Each structure stands twice: as C-alpha cells, then as structure tokens.
Amino acid sequence: MGSSRAVLLPGTASDEVFVASVFARPLAEAGYSLVAPPSRGVAEHVDALDAAWAGRPLVVGGVSLGAHVAASWAVRHPERCAGVLVALPAWNGPAGGAPAALAAAASAAAVEAVGVDGALTGVDGWLGDELRRAWPRYGRRLADVLREAAGSVAPTVAELGRLGVPVGVAACTDDPVHPIETARTWVDALPRGVLRTTTLAELGADREVLGRAALDALREAGAGPTGP
Length: 228
What we know:
Elements: E1 5-9, H1 16-30, E2 33-35, H2 41-52, E3 58-63, H3 65-76, E4 81-87, H4 99-119, H5 125-134, H6 142-150, H7 157-161, E5 167-172, H8 180-189, E6 193-198, H9 200-205, H10 208-221
Parallel strand pairs: 1-2, 1-3, 3-4, 4-5, 5-6
Helix pairs in contact: 1-10, 2-3, 4-6
C-alpha cells in the first residue's frame, strides 16, 4: 500500500516556498500531504528523497530540475515510488543546448558578474518577483547551483520507458524555457504517463493551476492516495 505523502522538489534556484504555492492546496484536496524539503542542488534533492522513504511507496516529483531528480530517483527505486508528479520538464538525458540549461548557465555568469539585482534586470512580472524572492536565499551558492543545474542529466527516454508507475506531467503550452515538446516526449516514453497543460499567464495569476494540472494527469494515469 502506498503512502499519502508527496515529496516534491523545487526547480533550479527555486525553493520549497514556490513548491508549496503550486502544490500544497491541490495535494491536500486530493488527500495527500506535501513534503517540500528545503534542499538546494541535485545531491541535496536526492538526499531529501532518501530521507523521506519510510518503508511505504511515496509519490515523488517536482518542478523542472526537481522533477528530473525525482523521476531519476523513481527509476532507480521503483519499489519506493507510487507515482510521480512532473511539472515543467526541461530536457531528457544530458542537457546539451536545452533552453533551460542555457538560461541557467547564462544566469550563473550574470550573477557572478553583476550580482542578483543586475542579473534580473528586465525580468519582470510574477517570474521576476519570484526570482528576486528565491535567489537571495542561496547566498554565495547561487551561481554554483545554477551552473550545476545547467550540466545535470535528466532521465533518458529509455529510462522513462522503464518507469512503470503512474506519472502526471504538467506543462505550459507557451513556455520557451520548458518546451511543450519536451513534456510530450516524456509522456510518449512513459508506459503510464498523462499530460495536462496550462499557460504562463494562468500560472502567473494562480500558481496552483500547475499543481492541479499535474494531479489531474496523475489521477488519469491511475494513481490516487491510499490513506495514511
């Protein structure tokens, strides 16, 4: 029997505050409790997933890089996973020239050259507000975390093909950094994957639309909470 806990990880240089804004209420309404670790970087994300394991299969997932790490963990530990929530997947396998990887590398260079405020010049709206809130929390680690993310490896198509648990994938149809084509590639590779979409404008107005989309997709893929 699976757990009703969902362990969700943030994207590159994001944090547990954003994860909670996206997933906490939708998960609660669906019967899950959110575990949003305050982890930073790939190794800490993996450690957080390992620490959350308590003998009953978990729902795991995250946003962008966090989703990559969680899906890779689920591939390695299928007995520990009841389902996966994937929001805004950014690439498969090595990052290569993926837009999100290029953006992270450029951001790292800009942070080192001109600081957080300078690096975010011209980044407006809800995204700018979010980055100005989250990035300072990384302190001196920010550029290193951005650069690590740019060189990280997501699950390959072949690895996704071995992930037999239900997977709900959510993506924005108009996001150039997390292309909808990448989300479709994930779902096409997954034995039990379902895609639901929203838009950046809808996400800006209400963060929860992304979490609800992922949960709706997970339900259709065949997963549900089984109680504490």
